[in-house]
Amino acid sequence: MKNNLLAIFCFVCCAIVTQLCTQRVWAQTASAGMTLEQANAVKSIKIANLDKDTYFKSGGFILDRYEERPAYVFTYSDGITRKIYLYKIFSAADTKDLGLLAIYQNGKTNEVKPFVIPGANGDRKAWDAYIDDLKYVGEKEPGLMSTLGFVLSREMANLMAGGGGKSEDGDKKKEEYNFCFAADAPVTMPNGTEKAIRDIKAGDVVVGYNAQTKSLAPTRVTKVEIHTGEFKLAGVWLASMNELTAGTSSALVAPVLLEATANHPVLTAAGRKALGDVKAGDVLYRYDATAKGVVAYNVVRTEAAVRSTKQVYNLVTESGAYLIGETVVLDK
After folding, report:
1. Among residues 216, 217, 180, 186, which one has the least CA distance to residue 199?
2. What is the pLDDT of residues 98-151, one digit of tens each?
3. Helix axis angle, 124-140 relative to 144-160, nearest 10°?
4. Around Cβ 146, how many Cβ atoms within 10 Å?
5. Residues near 96 by Cβ (< 8 Å), separated by ≥ 6?
6. In whole angstroms, how large is the CA radius of gyration of the chain?
């Protein structure tokens, strides 16, 4: 009887705190209403590494770790470590704020339980599904309700204390989630020509890159993403490593410019990096016709804002990488 009362108390606390939290957080922004279908789709998303996968796209959604926080960790007297991970949910098509994903993990079994919490404007059926999950899943997993209740209560207390999620310049801007290139960015085609990214269509075949074999190969475009707004493009200037070490008699070629939104990932010698995080001295890779493959290029200069544009494009490819201006860039 005592355990049943405790479970009921935790359930009621979770429901009340969640409702207050969503009203306070998402009512501050023009959030879209999450549907039951969307809630079920988010709940079915599998996250490969909860500790490392803090931001990614899947199934038409963007999942972004809430306030970039690590997991909440609890160790009870039974010796089992329990964790709660929080992600913000956005629609990938228009970056509308949809709600929150809370993931419970049992450290003994490694089993995870997802809870999709709709935003304040969420459909009633989506809210009903969340309440059902609290009741029926929570009853079967000891420790789940108390950990989830604590986390949501803690976040609510932080919001009421004046914290909670706004940066110095307000909420995250939509363009922070748009990883893209200007409309005239040249995509390298298998026949050696280039085509403006605005003219690429889903189903087209472009030059891709296999990071494991370090080789170029044709790859199919599965999706073209287009965003309209006001976007600043960062730039890096690249020079061949051979030119940097050539003798004074060699004719130097002007550095090549690669520009994209600052968060678009590129392939560097150190691995995947956002373009805005690339520094002078870093190494990127470009296609070389003579070598019939990619060669190392050194970053000789960077610029945070080369120009602005009102429309940006991104490709999703089967290989996960393609060439812009013959430079290897990665899918977001």
Report:
1. 186
2. 999 999 999 999 999 999 999 888 999 999 999 999 989 988 999 899 899 888
3. 130
4. 19
5. 30, 31, 32, 90
6. 24
| Structural tokens at position 35 | 């549907």
Question: What domains can you pick out in the chain, each with its CATH number?
Answer: 2-172 (no CATH), 176-330 (2.170.16.10)
CA dihedral sign, ordered 52, 55, 58, 61: positive
Extract the runs of DSSP E, i.e. beta strands, from the chain.
Answer: 55-58, 61-65, 72-75, 81-91, 97-106, 112-118, 181-182, 186-188, 194-196, 205-210, 215-240, 256-260, 265-268, 271-274, 283-288, 293-317, 321-324, 327-330
Do 315 and 200 form a contact (C-beta atoms < 8 A)?
Answer: yes
Strand partners, 56: 63
pTM here is 0.52
Q: Are 284 and 214 in contact (CB under 8 A)?
A: no
The structure tokens 């977001």 sit at: 332
Residue 244, amino acid = L
At 219, which amino acid appears? T
Burial of 112 (0-12, 13-18, 19+ CB in 10 A): middle
Cα–Cα distance for residue pair 195/177, rounded to 1 Å: 25
What is 305-318 written as a DSSP string? EEEEEEEEEEEEES
Closest CA to 42 of 26, 31, 58: 58
